[in-house]
Design a protein that fits this description.
single chain, mainly alpha, 0% strand, globular, binds zinc ion
Length: 112
């Protein structure tokens, strides 16, 4: 999306300045201080090993997957569509969809 580097999956999903800003905003929303400097697969598996309540662990995993998905969608929309989504719009989509998923599908009905 920045056209400044070879578009590898790791660049698109993590290292691109756009993706990096999305991850920073998502981590900030979750109250986490992460430097996403490990392979994405390792990062995802590490979220499932956090010493927190299983509901929170599953929520963080879901949010991480949603972040990857919406960065990918934003990239495709930018390359193949006509819209360039801003970082805050992508973060809003992540928040909106993960909230719905977690509230309705992960039996977290008390989620506010
Ligand atoms: Zn880039």
């Amino acid at each position: 999306m920045c056209f400044g580097s070879v578009e590898t999956p790791i660049h698109v999903l993590r290292e691109c300045p756009f993706a990096s800003k999305v991850w920073d905003e998502v981590f900030n929303w979750c109250g986490l201080k992460f430097a996403l400097n490990v392979p994405i697969k390792l990062f995802l598996s590490s979220t499932l090993q956090l010493s927190v309540a299983i509901e929170l662990r599953n929520a963080l995993y879901s949010i991480s997957l949603a972040t990857l998905w919406f960065i990918w969608l934003a990239r495709n929309e930018h390359i193949f569509g006509s819209t360039r989504l801003a970082v805050d719009k992508v973060v809003d989509l992540i928040k909106f969809h993960t909230f719905g998923w977690l509230k309705n599908r992960a039996h977290l009905g008390n989620l506010a």
